[in-house]
Design brief:
Elements: H1 2-29, H2 33-65, H3 71-99, H4 111-128
Amino acid sequence: MLYDLTKAAHLMSLFVWIGGMVAVALALRYPARIHLETLKTYDRAVTTPAMILALLFGIFLGAQGGWFTSTWLGVKLVLALGLSGLHGALVGKLSAIWESSSNATPNAGVFLPAGIMLLTLIILLVAVKPW
């Protein structure tokens, strides 16, 4: 029962985290200053805590399942840290645009595909558990 509740909490926090990242990535592709401050506030109050919770619940799930000796989990953790780094890059870009007077967003289009790729690989690893 505890495992199932932990998994549900992990998935809920993951959905909120990824949803926030998608919102910021789309806002960077089509910036409108009126929405940037709201997104910054939302990220600080909701998306970042959801990311931290997703990582903590994921570690707890790994411990409950006894998977820390499995190669697939190590690869998944590296990918999850990459997703966390991508979140940091998104927030950094969002802050830079907010603080500047320009709406220029060089290379902002790479964030969404990179996040989708990392998330797809993570889901595949969890579903298949290949090693």
